[in-house]
Amino acid sequence: MKVGVLSLQGDVREHVSALISCGINPVEVRRPSELAQIDALVIPGGESTTIAQLSEIFGLYQPIRERIAAGMPVYGSCAGMILLANNILDSKAGQKTFGGLDITVRRNAFGRQVDSFESDISFADGSSHLIHAVFIRAPWVEEIGANIEVLATIDEHPVAVRSASILATSFHPELTHDHRIHRYFLEEVAKPALEKVK
Ligand code: GLN
Questions:
Q1: Distance between CA 173 and CA 69 in Å, rounded?
Q2: How confident is the model at residue 75 (pLDDT cuts 50, 70, 90)?
Q3: What is the distance in A from the centroid of ligand 1 to the CA of 11?
Q4: Measured in angstroms, how far is the CA atom of residue 195 from the centroid of ligand 1?
Q5: Cβ(160)–Cβ(152) under 8 Å?
Q6: How confident is the model at residue 114 (pLDDT cuts 50, 70, 90)?
Q7: Catalytically annotated residues
Q8: Which of 107, 112, 117, 170 maximizes ligand 1 atoms within 8 Å of its Cβ, making it the mutation to test the pocket?
Q9: In testing the pocket of ligand 1, which one of 6, 9, 11, 48 has its CB within 8 Å of the most ligand atoms?
Q10: How far apart are CA 8 and CA 32, in angstroms?
């Protein structure tokens, strides 16, 4: 499986090294020809407005939207979650997303005083171990559609969700040494989705 990391802005390097730890040699995606080579994509944390704007400048916005709509497996952390949401609250005027996930996210939802925090949370991948979750000006999921599964919550707000081929977390597993979420994406989300289209 060829996995790309959208490499326009944000913590690209950290996702690249998390994927390398999972035995993947990722492609850094900055142009449509690189997007065309990959089977699955990771969208990093960073600034969702900037990533969306740069994707338009680099001619990637429409091709990414189309690949996601056609079923390409995608994982987005934090800004990546925002970019995968069909609807955003507290967005910048005219802010675009790639969409694909039938969720409404609220940007910077945890408020200014607790802009950034860390918490050990459970993640519904069948493991009883808590996951150390790093939140940095993170969104939460405010509404979910019928086909969305909630994998983790904080104070009843979903912070990890998935559909058949899309995974999104409000937090940044790429900033820890625990690669469980990346493995979950590769094994439980991307592989089965790609098997289906074969
Ligand atoms: N608040 C940022 C945004 O709206 C996301 C922050 C992050 O990715 N750490 O894009």
A1: 25
A2: very high
A3: 11
A4: 32
A5: yes
A6: low
A7: 78, 172, 174
A8: 107
A9: 48
A10: 12
Which fold would CATH assign to domain 3-197? Rossmann fold (3.40.50)
Q: How many CB atoms lie within 10 A of CB 197?
A: 11
| Mean pLDDT for the chain overall | 96
Q: Is 156 exposed, middle or buried (0-12, 13-18, 19+ CB in 10 A)?
A: exposed
Question: Distance from the CA of 47 to the center of ligand 1, in angstroms?
Answer: 5
Backbone angles phi, psi at 114, to 5 degrees: -115, 45
Backbone angles phi and psi of 82, in degrees to 5: -60, -45
**What is the largest distance, in Å, between two alpha-carbon atoms of the chain?**
48
Ligand 1 site, residue 83, Cβ cutoff 6 A: no
Which DSSP helix (H) or strand (E) runs through 10? none
Whether the per-residue pLDDT at 36 is higher than 60: the answer is: yes
